[in-house]
Amino acid sequence: MTGRTALSPAEPHLRPPATRRPLLKLLFGDVLSALLTVLSALIILSLLPGLNWALIDAHWSVASPDNCREAGACWAFIGAKLRLILFGLYPPEEQWRPMIVIALILVMIIASLSPRVWGARMLLLWALAIAVMLVLMRGGLFGLVPVPTSRWGGLPVTLLLATLSLGLAFPLAVLLALGRRGRLPVARAVSVTMIELVRGLPLVGLLFVAAILLPLLLPPDWTMDKLGRTLAALTIFAAAYLSEVIRGGLQGLDDGQVEAAKALGIPYWKTVWYIVLPQAIQNVIPPLTNTAIVMVKNTSLVLIVGVFDMLSAARSAATDPEWPAPSTEAYLFVALIYFAICFGISIYSRHLETGINARRHG
Fold first, then answer.
1. Cα-Cα end-to-end distance for the chain
2. Could you read off the pLDDT of 308-336 as tens digits, one per residue?
3. Domain count, the chain
4. pTM of the predicted model, to two decimals?
5. Would you say residue 99 lies in a domain?
6. Is 153:309 a contact under the CB 8 Å cutoff?
7. Could you give the CA distance from residue 314 to residue 295 in angstroms, rounded to a whole number?
8. Which structural domain, as residue segments, surrounds residue 252?
9. Which CATH number is 339's domain given?
10. What is the pLDDT of residues 95-122, one digit of tens each?
11. Dihedral sign, CA of 197, 198, 203, 209?
12. At what angle do helices 310-317 and 155-181 cross, to 10 degrees?
């Protein structure tokens, strides 16, 4: 014996033996999976007549509205009423202005997607863009024909209400969340009262309060049009729900970071702005996205107080007596636009959350 241990050669890597599963079990799995598969197949089969109505038997272009009285969807109605659905009662000769507003909103959203550009400059750029949008819509400056808010409608109103309500509500929600978690009794009482009062009211009731009661409560010299009152109701409603989401993110943080910042002599506002809020918001991106999607869909409720949004415009277009009951096509078209907006927000949220998780574990 030489004292050296003889090492056996490494065994080659062997793959596990392949297991053959019966075709029936491969397709259906267990009993629950089989039931779900059959149910899904039945649902797909039940939708086939609807697909025939929407695609195969549909009328994409017609010489006159009477041709749409046959079987199948009348998508030619959407083409004929597209301007009314997208721009509402806005003067036809001035509809290039809301088109620019829609393009500006899309450009600003795309420019704001990357977290690297978030900051004071982007906020200033958004404020400038919103000012330009409002000037374009209202007119009265730079030679633009004045258009009152009662003539605004369609997709620009939906996008402006969603963007402005969320943008104005977010800083208010941060203040409410900090006030509710703070140690000042007055700030905490005011925050709790506002949050619970607004969250205890349906948005429909809040819209009626803003549209009917708010003018009676304001001084006689103060005037606010219906669109402004609607925006105020949506902003307050969004702030109450966003504040609870942000408060959940604040509760998930370790108090040791705040105590360490105090020990280092860092002012309270710097601790909140640079340490607490960034981490709290990153922790609650999914519920924040859910609230944003809900607010986009809630803009459709403004029709009950007389604001001519996209859904109201589609409803008005469907009442044209020359067309044979095209309300289904109009509502489906509007639903597709809402779906595209909300699905885009959901995809961006997943992308943002994935990037944040990669930086944390990278």
1. 51
2. 889 889 988 888 888 887 888 899 999 99
3. 1
4. 0.82
5. no
6. yes
7. 20
8. 76-90+147-361
9. 1.10.3720.10
10. 999 999 999 999 999 999 888 888 889 9
11. positive
12. 150
